[in-house]
Amino acid sequence: MPPKPRSKPDKACARTNGTKSLKTRTRTKPGSNTSTGKSLAKGTSRNTSKTKPRKATGKGASKKPPTKENLRQTRAAVTIQSYVRRFLTKRRQEHDARRDAEYKAEIERIEREVWVSWVKRQRDEEERRFAV
């Protein structure tokens, strides 16, 4: 396989004299405090965008009572989930029982083969003993 062609470095990155490290250009926003080294006063933030205040979601938040339609849909969803879980559990149990039966049958077959080979070996030893 031929080697992959090398990609050309971006203009933002330039190799230094013979070293493998790359120098990258860092860009700062004009007027940002990081470029001048100034620190912000306590309690102020760097985000200058105007955002809406968040709604209260804790204990003090007012909740609308659920409607009859929402309650019916919730009850239906719970019923469907319970039937699906019941079905999947039953299917999993059948699958596990089938695999267990196959495993036990395989073990019995192997034990029978081992026993038959042991009996044959014993017969062969008895025949050798009496043949001499």
Features:
2 strands, 5% strand
Gist of the model:
This protein is mainly alpha-helical and 132 residues long. Helices cover 52% and strands 5% of the residues. The protein is built from two helices and two strands.
Low-confidence stretches: none
Radius of gyration: 39 Å
Describe the main β-sheet briefly.
2 strands, antiparallel
Terminal Cα separation, in Å?
Answer: 69 Å
Strand portion: under 5%
| Average of per-residue pLDDT values | 78
> In what order do the strands lie side by side in the largest sheet?
1-2
Q: What is the 3D form?
A: elongated
The level of helicity is 40-55%
What oligomeric arrangement do these chains adopt? Answer: single chain
State the total count of DSSP E strands.
2
- Derived from helix and strand composition plus strand pairing, the structural class reads mainly alpha
> How do the SSEs run, as a string of H and E?
EEHH
What does this structure look like?
- The chain is mainly alpha-helical and 132 residues long.
- Helix content is 52%, strand content 5%.
- A two-stranded antiparallel sheet has the order 1-2.
Question: Topology of this structure?
Answer:
Elements lengths: L12 E3 L6 E3 L8 H4 L31 H64 L1
